[in-house]
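cache lookup: miss for this entity combination. No prior model stored, computing from scratch. Input as submitted by user K.M.:
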Amino acid sequence: MPHDDPDHPHELLPPDPALRVKALETLLTTKGLVDPVALDVIIDIYETKIGPRNGAHVVARAWSDRGFRAALLEDATAVVTQMGYYGRQGEHMVAVENTPEQHNMVVCTLCSCYPWPLLGIPPAWYKSDAYRARAVREPRAVLAEFGVHLPEQTAVRVWDSTAEVRYLVIPRRPEGTDGMSEAALQDLVTRDSMIGTGLALAPGAPA
Amino acid sequence: MSRVHDMGGRYGDGPVIPEPEHHKFDADWHRRALALTLAMGAHGAWNLDTSRHARESLAPQDYARFSYYEKWMAGLADLLVAKGLVSAGELAGETPAQQPLAERTLRAEQVAAVLARGGPADRPSEVAPQFVPGDRVRTRARAANATVDGGHTRLPTYAAGAEGRIIRCHGCHVLPDSAAHGLGDAAEPLYAVVFQASELWSHPEHPRDEVVLDLWQSYLAPA
């Protein structure tokens, strides 16, 4: 690998990725371009504060409140903003609802766009070449790898996130959940069910 | 003419490996890579489209062998030099002078507010919407930037030259093909367009399956 390629100066950094990041962080900190404490705060926010429980809160409320569900399907950005879930990588939200006739599933084939304020940092599989390459062409084969098998009557609609619009799947409410509280319903809403690679859990099922 | 990141529909990638919800980072350096990238964005030296294009412009062999956050680090390093924030010598290990925090350096106390503020991509635009939901459209024959040779675009190759139907207008959004190259926001109408799987793939899994893409007006012509 040439070390003087003007188009790819990253080759000047150490090849080991951990050393590479360390070298960049040290350089940028020395030059006053990075406050290392700010990095700690960013990590803490995405590790402990912003994650898929935000999305589960939205879904459980949509299951529980018809007016909320209608408003969410009409203008998800406004609704999630009111709940405090506006932010980076969630500036333009659209909610899409699964039905017996249509199952929705979200991918970003060109990079890894994902609704961060509602679901947090995307899982490794969402960013993998395999998911990005295959979800649009053979969504049912991919779903089978998640243990999801859809009936013949259910069409699959895959949303390729090619712009700054981010999609939240509202999974179908499981059977046997009539009368359950919104808080209890939240525990049935998995991250994967809001990407469309999973279904919501049945009550009493192991998470 | 496509770039290596444009992989929708590609064969041969093997299985998707699910992982539990609580698992967020595989290594500590992943955390630092994510945070470094977000923190450097605060300088305003580039936009989201520029940083995407930097990752897409990695050599195909690097893009393929790098893990996700390695792509981010390589893209960041290339941008830092391209925008003059860091010299090639400094990347190679020359000792830089100690500097106080720059004016736009993201401080710890600003982080929460900056992340919560986000960066919306909708803009006012003079470009009038040409389509309404229900209209049939055809995408550009080639998934290429119309202005910059080899430039950034968000039309994937698998959806080039395909006929679909408008299902939603998202308003006017920054055009990545322009913004990625410092040519201005050039906002124009953005639509969700639905395509039958049979329009895109030679062996669709199911006759009623569909794929939706968000596509800018200039990518589309009436069908």
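stored under new cache key. Chain A is about 45% helix and 10% strand.
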